[in-house]
Every structure is written in structure tokens, then in C-alpha cells.
């Protein structure tokens, strides 16, 4: 039994060799155009891959039911844009803590937290770029300017890391990165409102 968004389909599990074949077939269906899969349940249990192509290793002999839950891509974009402002606050909080740790000479702790903050920042930049490209062209002219500023700042921070200039790095985080995070928060709030106003409920 294969269920898509609460509706039982005529597709038979026995026609496929493994779970990946089922998922690939379903995603190619016209009904999935402009939709994002949010949940996959196999035998009524949530499934998510622990390693790439794990679904290929799950034989259909062991599967009695597959349920796929999806949502419209534009609705997900609105939901995600609503979370982005919170991410900017997380980035700013991380920057403040890293700067404090460097100034307290707790370099090892600072470097560990800095890596986490940079990972979140890279993910954030990628996601805002995708959202704006797909749904928010022309939303805010400051986007490109802020992106360029963030790229330049990250490069400067990388140089400070290479030279182990922790005080300069603390200054960059506190006096440049943190204010830029606040500007990104304003941009994300605006983008969310714009998206919510054009995407039907």
C-alpha cells in the first residue's frame, strides 16, 4: 500500500525492488510538481536516511506500507522564511559568546563555538539565497549588498583565524558581524511578510 498525502494510490509495492525506487517513482509523478516531501513513513514508522541512498538497501519484501507526506513548495518557503529571523538572532548570540570567550582567553571553547556559528551562517546564507531566487525577486535591494558584506567579512575572519589573531577576530564578530546579523534579521522579517502576502493559505 502506497499512500500520498492521505490518499491511497493504485501503485503496488510489489512492482518495485526497493524503497528508493518507490520514492523516485512517486517524486516523478505529476501530482508532486511544486511540492516538497516533509515525511516518509515505512510500515507506519518515520523514515529518514542515516547515510546516502540508504533507501536503496531497504528491500520491498520487508515493506507493507509507504506513506509520503508533502506540502506545497511555496507554503514551505513562507514557513521557512518565518524561521530565518530567529536564525539571525542565533548567529548574533553565537558571535557575542565567541567574542567574550576570546577576550577571556578561552581560545579552545571560542574556536569550537565559532565553527558552529560559521556553519549556521553558511546554511543561513544558502537558504536565504534560495528563497529569494525562487520567491522574492525584487523584495529588497539590500540583499546583494548584505551578501557581499557578509562574504567580505567571512574572508577577513578567515584571515584572522589563520594568523590566530583572536582579539581582531573578537572585534570583527562584535562590531561588524553582530550588526550585520541584525540587518539580516530586518531583511528576513520583510521577506517573510512579502512571501506571506503573495502565497495563498
Beta-strand content: 5-15%
Classify the helix fraction into a percent range.
55-70%
Annotation field: number of helices: 5
The average pLDDT value, as a whole number, equals 88
The rounded Rg comes to: 22 Å
Order of helices and strands: EEHEEEHHHH
Strand neighbour order, sheet with most strands: 2-1-5-3-4
Q: Report the strand count.
A: 5
Number of domains: 2
- Label the overall shape: elongated
In terms of structural class, how would the helical and strand content be classed?
alpha+beta
The end-to-end distance, rounded to whole angstroms, is 30 Å
Largest sheet: 5 strands, mixed
Low-confidence stretches are: none
Structural notes for this entry:
There is one protein chain. By secondary structure, this protein is α+β, with helices and mostly antiparallel strands. The chain folds into 2 domains: 2-64, no CATH class; 75-198. The protein has helices at residues 19-27, 73-103, 107-135, 142-162, 166-198, and strands spanning 2-4, 7-8, 35-42, 45-46, 66-72. Strands 2-1-5-3-4 form a 5-stranded mixed β-sheet. The radius of gyration is 22 Å and the shape is elongated. The two termini are 30 Å apart. The mean pLDDT is 88.
Break the fold down into its secondary structure elements and pairings.
Elements: E1 2-4, E2 7-8, H1 19-27, E3 35-42, E4 45-46, E5 66-72, H2 73-103, H3 107-135, H4 142-162, H5 166-198
Helix pairs in contact: 2-3, 2-5, 3-5, 4-5
Keywords:
201 residues; alpha+beta; 2 domains; 5-stranded mixed beta sheet; 5 helices; 5 strands
Amino acid at each position: 500500500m502506497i499512500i500520498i498525502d492521505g490518499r491511497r494510490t493504485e501503485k503496488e509495492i510489489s512492482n518495485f525492488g526497493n524503497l528508493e525506487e518507490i520514492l523516485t517513482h512517486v517524486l516523478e509523478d505529476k501530482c508532486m510538481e511544486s511540492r516538497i516531501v516533509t515525511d516518509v513513513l515505512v510500515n507506519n514508522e518515520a523514515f529518514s536516511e542515516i547515510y546516502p541512498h540508504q533507501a536503496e538497501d531497504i528491500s520491498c519484501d520487508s515493506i507493507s506500507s509507504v506513506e509520503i507526506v508533502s506540502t506545497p513548495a511555496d507554503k514551505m518557503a513562507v514557513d521557512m522564511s518565518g524561521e530565518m529571523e530567529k536564525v539571525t538572532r542565533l548567529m548574533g548570540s553565537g558571535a557575542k559568546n565567541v567574542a567574550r570567550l576570546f577576550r577571556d582567553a578561552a581560545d579552545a571553547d571560542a574556536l569550537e563555538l565559532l565553527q558552529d556559528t560559521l556553519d549556521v551562517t553558511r546554511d543561513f546564507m544558502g537558504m536565504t539565497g534560495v528563497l529569494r531566487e525562487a520567491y522574492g525577486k525584487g523584495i529588497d535591494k539590500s540583499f546583494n549588498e548584505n551578501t557581499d558584506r557578509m562574504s567580505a567579512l567571512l574572508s577577513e575572519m578567515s584571515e584572522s583565524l589563520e594568523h590566530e589573531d583572536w582579539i581582531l577576530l573578537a572585534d570583527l564578530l562584535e562590531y561588524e558581524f553582530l550588526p550585520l546579523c541584525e540587518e539580516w534579521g530586518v531583511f528576513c522579517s520583510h521577506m517573510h511578510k512579502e512571501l506571506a502576502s503573495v502565497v495563498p493559505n
